[in-house]
Amino acid sequence: MRADERRTAEGILFTDQYQLSMAQLYFRQGLHERPAQFDHFFRRYPDYGLHGAGYCISAGLAWLVEWMREAHFRAEDLAHLRAQRTRTGEQLFADDFLAYLQQTGGFESLSLFAIPEGRVVHPHVPLSMVRGPLAMAQILETALLNQLNYQTLIATKAARIREVSHGALVLEFGLRRGQDRGANAGTRAALIGGADFTSNVGLSSTLGLPPKGTHAHALVQVFLALGQSELDAFRAYAEVYPDDCLLLVDTVNTLESGVPNAIRVFEELRAKGHHPVGIRLDSGDLAYLAIQSALLLDRAGFPDTTIVLSSDLDELVIWQIQTQITQEAPRYGADAATILRRLVYGVGTRLVTSHGEGALGGVYKLVAMHDGTAWQPAIKLADTPEKLTNPGLKAAWRLYDARGFATADLLTLADETPSQAERLSLRHPNDYARHRTLEHAALSGMEPLLVEVLHEGQLVHELPPLAAIRAQRDADVDRLDAGVRRIVNPHIYHVSLSQQLWDLKQTLLAQLGG
Amino acid sequence: MRADERRTAEGILFTDQYQLSMAQLYFRQGLHERPAQFDHFFRRYPDYGLHGAGYCISAGLAWLVEWMREAHFRAEDLAHLRAQRTRTGEQLFADDFLAYLQQTGGFESLSLFAIPEGRVVHPHVPLSMVRGPLAMAQILETALLNQLNYQTLIATKAARIREVSHGALVLEFGLRRGQDRGANAGTRAALIGGADFTSNVGLSSTLGLPPKGTHAHALVQVFLALGQSELDAFRAYAEVYPDDCLLLVDTVNTLESGVPNAIRVFEELRAKGHHPVGIRLDSGDLAYLAIQSALLLDRAGFPDTTIVLSSDLDELVIWQIQTQITQEAPRYGADAATILRRLVYGVGTRLVTSHGEGALGGVYKLVAMHDGTAWQPAIKLADTPEKLTNPGLKAAWRLYDARGFATADLLTLADETPSQAERLSLRHPNDYARHRTLEHAALSGMEPLLVEVLHEGQLVHELPPLAAIRAQRDADVDRLDAGVRRIVNPHIYHVSLSQQLWDLKQTLLAQLGG
Q: Which 327-346 residues of chain A touch chain B by CB within 8 A?
């Protein structure tokens, strides 16, 4: 794509046609400046086919905010819209509507409330809320969903991989398998959710993190093609990177050639006073090869070297490798725990594509319209109760039990003050029969989840750096019940409605005959 | 991401760290300018879980070429590299290497050979080949894989959806569910592979295609929240878009409210001399609702209106809907074929994420190195025969049988002239026992598949517009056997090696002890 085309395709026209069709209709009806509120939320956790998530990690907000502050209707954008025709050949978007868009500029009129990045999040709880003039809030939908859904999806997958890695380093390697430049968003979200480092040079540089990576099979192939050997390739690597020597050992034959050659080079390095870093395994039975490689490295006096594993890893594959090592290592006289501690996981394709569930089904639904006098709640009817929306201006709270663990997320109407109530009534979002009462005194704490990020286009919340986002993630995950953290068949975390919100929902449903 | 960060993350540092580590090693060894050739190919068709593709459609080339011509080492990029440190705190990339990168600029030294966009492509046949100085050819790997793999993946999924749509219009709606701005690449690839139009305003505008879309549930919700009705919303829509009136009918209740209200508005439009376009169904039992809606529209005298279906469609879901309509329509006295002809398919999430297989496993492997005197073939060893590479400088040919159908793709050494041979020997890529002989006289034609696109950085091949790419796609798909086009359990298309290439491969394997 040429640079001018990119500006068109990635600017304010990064939206769906129907948003603009509706915006013009609102304009014709005099509704375009009427305040509206849309809530963005997902209805269920990612389900990866045979296993599903018990929580998600929010991500994408900083990039959305930066996009919102940059995107505006340029003359070229308006020219593209002006060129569109109806079926009868007339101009589809009229000049007065286009003049309105030009005058409006961009999203400066909108307020954005959101759950900060790195937080644990759950279905039905708004990840973000957009409030402001109906037309522009409508046009924003596509870009908001695009940016928050994908990064949250990947941060969630990365958190699962981190969960099974038990403190081992996780490296993100997916750049080549993402969707064009969108792969950078995947890298960022992976770093938020659970990866420690990435191979992605550009993105990592913008975050001030050192990118990670040593060499590929190609290096060994080059030497072989020129009549030299794997050992020559390894020696050349050690010569250039004597203190960062991590060798890929499976180009020829892992145990017969790769590891012995690596050990020879490590010995040469040691003799010169350097500390070899380790090896990488990228094919074959990784668990078996890790044990055998560890034994060879131990015997050669390199028990502190790292073993990096890569090749279509994900949370289940890592778990299986760990289980196999635990079971199999003793048979070879090796200590499984020691081997597991030296492993590093390189995760590519299955992280950046969220293998098994390639999209988070986050939606953006109108929940209130201002009628000129007051806010009127809006609801989306549906045949299935799970698809009903929760109406009105709302707040979301997280409740912590006596142990300090998160026990429920509670949606209330915006003007409720649950933090001052002695007793909280928690209703299941859709099931009349399921509700419980909590004594406030039994809670150790309660906090609102959303913060105002943009107030009428102005940034009013500091967007934290990666380190702070990660600290938030760790704090939130630590306060989850172990059952919710399970990677297979997790315990269901409670998301509840307050009695008042429940009542409003039922009233609206009755009115609309739902 | 800020604009300056974007330039870093999307420019020449859109690569993996190990490419740069290897490049510096080649530089130290004096190998960096040595001519090398890498082949890019995939090893198997996408497998969507319970069904798999029988062919792929190539896409992504034009954007890759534009990226290669733009990307270069800027001062900021070099500063990021200069800032990297070894484990002992020294500068990781030395100044002489960085000076070399700066002087080299970008990919101007590389030649790129590729199969043009829109062509049917198969495993093991190089989609692209890169020839030129080793260091820069190595650095290109990540971006090339990223751009060609994803677009080819999506063009392939779109071709499958087109295959089951039997001439019905296919609309791409996936922008909100793609990976950040990478969704634009998905839109483009969908339009190459099989979608007729897209809802993506910006990208569609750059291609000169009208974007498609009418309204969402939000429009009806706005009217309901303000105390008005679905009918009021539809009337407002018809007033603004009298000749483009396509109404979403499932916000309240499809058959009780949506379709009757749409019909009322259509009657009002007709009375004013306009032609209503149709309705869209976005939830529920789409096949049943399509039949019932068609009956209602027919009875009201609107047999020519369109019925757009959306909601997690893919090739299997569409096929199931068609089958159900075919079986169920007669029970209601409706003609199934007539209903099927008025359907339009809106496909979003499952197209842009290639549901079931979110990545094409295309790889980029060294196949030859120049030793200063001559090209030396390179091979990648592997435990599994399917992972072996095909060595040397090669050409790829497509062979057409007497009916004019593609019967096999043939890989030969670059200096072979199979088009002049009387008899062709076709070897299975890995299985010694499988080979056949073809008489040239039995073929109706034979063509080389790759063209030189960049010659030492200069564009030497015209990159065709979308319409020409689509015409190429149609021509190629038309020349496929029906069995290869099946969406479930397709017939295996033959990809073969020439006897000379087979012999070279065996010789190298024997030499390397593989």
A: none
pLDDT at position A313 is: 97
Residues of chain B numbered 448-487 and touching chain A (CB < 8 Å): none
Q: Do the Cβ atoms of B82 and B96 come closer than 8 Å?
A: no
ipTM above 0.90, yes or no: yes
Which residues sit opposite B47 in a β-bridge? B52
The pair of structure tokens assigned to A477 is 């995950």
CB distance B121 to B58 below 8 Å: yes
- Spell out the residues 6+ positions from residue A344 whose beta carbon is closer than 8 angstroms to its own: A168, A169, A170, A171, A278, A306, A307, A308, A309
- Residue in chain B lying closest to A355 (CA): B358
Of A86, A359, A371, the CB nearest to B349: A359
Amino acid at A221: Q
Q: DSSP per residue over A119-156, as a string?
A: -EE-TTS-SEEEEEEHHHHHHHHHHHHHHHHHHHHHHH
pLDDT 10s digits, A399-425: 999 999 999 999 999 999 998 889 999
Tens-place pLDDT, residues B412-429: 999 999 988 899 999 998
Residues 6+ apart with CB under 8 A from A15: A139, A140, A141, A142, A143, B175, B201, B202
Distance from CA of B53 to the nearest CA of A (A): 18
Quick one: which H or E segment has residue A455?
A: strand A451-455
- Does residue A501 contact residue A415 with C-beta atoms inside 8 Å? no
Assess contact for A54 and A485: CB atoms under 8 A.
yes
CB contact under 8 A, B358 and A358: yes
* Whole-structure pTM value: 0.97
